[in-house]
Amino acid sequence: MAYDLITMGRIGVDLYPLQTGVPLAQVSSFGKFLGGSATNVAVAAARLGRNTAVITRTGEDAFGAYLHEALRGFGVDDRWVTPVPGLNTPVTFCEIFPPDDFPLYFYRQPKAPDLEIDAHELDLDAVRDARVFWVTGTGLSEEPSRTATLAALAHRAKAGTTVFDLDWRPMFWGGDVDGSRRGPEAARPFYAEALRHTTVAVGNLDEVEVATGVREPQAAAQALLDAGVEIAVVKQGPKGVLAVSRDGDRAEVPPLPVNVLNGLGAGDAFGGSLCHGLLEGWDLEKIMRHANAAGAIVASRLECSSAMPTPEEIDAALAAGAVL
Fold first, then answer.
1. CA-based nearest residue to 317, from 299, 288, 280, 290
2. I want to staple 209 with a disulfide (CB 3.0 to 4.6 A). Which of 67, 77, 122, 215 is the partner?
3. Could you tell me if residue 31 is left (phi over 0), alpha (psi between -120 and 50 degrees) or otherwise beta?
4. 176: buried, middle or exposed (CB in 10 Å: 19+, 13-18, 0-12)?
């Protein structure tokens, strides 16, 4: 069976404070949620009716068991989610200071199991047959995940739609949060190799600069096209999103007004909706408007995975012109 979407990358448990505007040291209660960007994208697309699966690894522990249960509950196939003995399932905490400050604290030491994805264990036929295949920059940050990610991309050879989420996290590359110890130069050669096998690249301004060395949105989009992709999607924060295709189509869509509660996960909702729109064959402007609305809805909610919107919720937000 060919999947609508297979994602490959990060998974973990999100422990989000149930109090907003409170420093983590003073938080007294947390909610537990499925997390990880690639996994959330699969959940978001499943919520929109897509047949999805995720390739990742967990610890052989209670949190790993929880993630399998959560994936199945969301309708995401977990057959390629395997345990790594001796490593713990990652946990991520955050602080919530609306509207735009959401510090993240990743507990992925000594190593996250999702970076132990091995090329020899991949179902390459399934990867090639999927209508959309999604990989992330984090998957390139360490071995054996780096080789596995590039091997999957090379085997797929741009069959169908292949999306590269640029997903720049400096701390995963052995650097400080601000990238001061290891800058983008460490990542850029691997990003360039991934882009050779990619049809769609998506990232914010920081991420496109890591991938291309260019920050200005129009120039960055062109640099991504020059690197080999068919569609470049550049998220510009309050200025909205820019999408440019190799055949000359272009869309620049403003964000949907929303009262932000927690901005984390909005990009994953955007990604799941992006995949849905590409599968539907929509034009670029409709895809971007739909994806913007999906992201805005999640930004208005506390959680990530369980906040992913339904088609009816996205349609209602678009009809209203805002997330109410």
1. 290
2. 215
3. beta
4. exposed
**What's the token pair of residue 74?**
């969301």
Give the model confidence (pLDDT) of 93-111 as tens digits: 999 999 999 999 999 999 9
Q: What is the residue extent of each domain of the chain?
A: 5-319
Distance CA 317, CA 323 (A): 5
- For residues 304 and 42, give the distance between their C-alpha atoms in angstroms, rounded to a whole number: 12
**Residue in 262, 266, 232 with CA at minimum distance from that of residue 247:** 232
Contact partners, residue 231, CB within 8 Å, separation at least 6? 199, 200, 201, 243, 244, 245, 246, 284
Q: Could you tell me the strand order of the sheet in which 30-35 lies?
A: 30-35, 12-17, 91-94, 104-107
Using pLDDT thresholds of 50, 70 and 90, give the confidence band for residue 179.
Answer: very low
Task: Say which residues have a Cβ less than 8 Å from residue 62's Cβ, sequence separation at least 6.
Answer: none
**Considering only CA atoms, which of 283, 143, 278, 307 is closest in space to residue 201?**
278
Contact 150, 193 (CB under 8 A): yes
Sign of the alpha-carbon dihedral angle for 306, 311, 313, 317: positive
Cα distance between residue 201 and residue 282, in whole Å: 17
CB 175 within 8 Å of CB 181 = yes
Alpha-carbon span 83 to 94, nearest angstrom? 25
> Which contacts qualify for 171-178: CB closer than 8 Å, 24 or more apart?
171/106, 172/106, 172/108, 172/138, 172/141, 172/142, 173/141
How far is Cα of residue 196 from the mean position of the Cα atoms in its chain? 19
- The two most distant CA atoms of the chain are separated, in Å, by 53
Query: What 8-state DSSP symbol labels residue 143?
Result: T
The residue among 39, 51, 69, 79 whose CA lies nearest residue 308 is 39
Contact between 146 and 139 (Cβ < 8 Å): yes
**Domain 5-319 top-level CATH class:** alpha beta
pTM > 0.85? yes
